[in-house]
Write a structure and sequence with these properties.
alpha/beta, 1 helix, two-stranded parallel ribbon, two-stranded parallel sheet, 69 residues
Length: 69
C-alpha cells in the first residue's frame, strides 16, 4: 500500500500509482515478481529482511530474471 493511499495487487502496480517521493509499505510475506521497473524516487519499506521478501521466481535461487531495474 502507498502510505495514505490505496492497496494494489502487485508491487509494480503500487510503483506505477505512486508519485515521486511516496513510500510504499510492503506487508509480511513473499512477493514473486520479476522485471519491476522503478523510474522515480520512492521509498519501499518492508517489515524486515526475514518478513518481506521480493523474489523473481517462486523457488528461491532459481530465477533467471532480475527483480528490480
Amino acid at each position: 500500500c502507498v502510505v495514505g493511499g490505496a492497496c494494489h495487487p502487485s508491487l509494480q502496480a503500487a510503483i506505477n500509482a505512486a508519485s515521486a517521493g511516496d513510500t510504499i509499505e510492503l506487508g509480511a510475506g513473499v512477493d514473486t515478481e520479476a522485471g519491476i521497473v522503478i523510474s522515480k524516487n520512492l521509498t519501499i519499506r518492508g517489515q524486515g529482511a526475514a518478513q518481506s521478501i521480493v523474489q523473481a521466481d517462486a523457488n528461491p535461487n532459481t530465477a533467471t530474471d532480475r527483480v528490480f531495474s
